[in-house]
Amino acid sequence: MIDSLDEALPELEKVARDASASEMLQQRAAEVLGCAWRDRGILLTADITGFTPIARQEILFHRGEGLPYPD
Length: 71
What we know:
It is a single chain. 59% of the residues lie in helices and 0% in strands. The protein is an all-alpha fold. It has one domain. Helix 2 runs parallel beside helix 3.
């Protein structure tokens, strides 16, 4: 069982990289990661290598670098 956000972060990163997960789940995992990383002051430097396109776009949105979804 996961008892804290710190314990959940690695699992959220796995979902954000998992192309077989639903796009909604990928996006939600990235949204939670973006908020957690922002609160920890690492949002702009966090490694999003290997994130699915949906998850990567969500993180870029949190960074202020793009729209949440492509046109």
